[in-house]
Amino acid sequence: MDTADEIISATFWSREFLMEYRQLGKSGLMVPELCFGAGTFGSKNNEFFAAWGATDDSATAKRIIDVCFDSGINMFDTADIYSNGESEDVLGKAIKHLHREDILISTKATFRSGKGPNDVGSSRYHLIQSVEKSLKRLGTDYVDIFHLHAFDATAPVEETLRALDDLVTAGKIRYIACSNFSGWHLMKSLSVSDHYGWSRYVAHQAYYSLVGREFEWELMPLGVDQGVGTLVWSPLGWGRLTGKLRRGAEAPKESRLNTKVVVDSGPQVPQEYLFDVVAAIDEVARETGKSVPQIALNWLLRRPTVSSLVIGARNEEQLKQNIGAVGWKLTAEQIAKLDAASDVPKTYPYWHQVQFTERNPLPV
Description:
Layout: E1 9-13, E2 18-23, E3 30-32, E4 34-37, H1 47-50, H2 58-71, E5 75-77, H3 86-94, E6 104-109, H4 124-138, E7 143-148, H5 157-169, E8 173-179, H6 183-196, E9 201-207, H7 219-226, E10 229-233, H8 260-265, H9 271-288, H10 292-301, E11 306-311, H11 316-323, H12 332-342, H13 350-353
């Protein structure tokens, strides 16, 4: 896949924003460069998801969807396990007033969704059951992008991909994608799909941020080589790049990072490293007049394979702030400054490979 400047794209004009549409991998599907993540939709009774925000009234959810749609964001991402299915339910009600053909819905399955022995994984049984339940909660008869939320090493890859291909043939899902795969998980899956002529993963939803760049070591080169687009989850580094965390400043009282279950289940970022990266972002923010999260998001939009960033928001103001990351571009010098500040030592074999870029070039 080419750089962001070279990606086949279209633009959407609104009163406030200029939204670019990008080709998702080497599929024919065009997606907006920002996607709304509906993980904040659902019950306040779920500690993990409530820490990110809990929008469970239909009027507020509908207003957030309308702000997205008016700005050119027509893709909405959720999953069967978000607030135990409530996210899909709230999202389905919030988009009911829109024309189905005007929006893209992305959801996921694989993680445990019930107490039964088959209520988990990527078996044919669980995937078909999960899709049917998701369609019912979303109030639609098809999903545009269906992800495996994680790799299931206990289910044969052939069984999983045949089930997904059958769901595509049946019209229940349009495109298949994966999430949180290792390089070999993704490459093996692509090879099996190619061997049998089955539907192929067009995208990988992965964690990637200015304070989490391991994605670049293996998964990004694989995406370039195989034409797999990247949908980035938690592009603000698990809530660390909101502009509220700085060296010498008091930590905010309201933060998802104050919730132990959130911190323990997410990426671990050394504090001094975080502060160094934020200091570099602050420099660029002063040069551009943009906010810390807008700089962090715009940097990601300049990276190879990135098709869309999954952004969330507790409220309308935060949403509009994040949408302000589009319609402008960092300079090459600013990108280089951020690259240098966020670089970290690589593990083997990547530290060895980067010494021989003449024969093993980095993604451009």
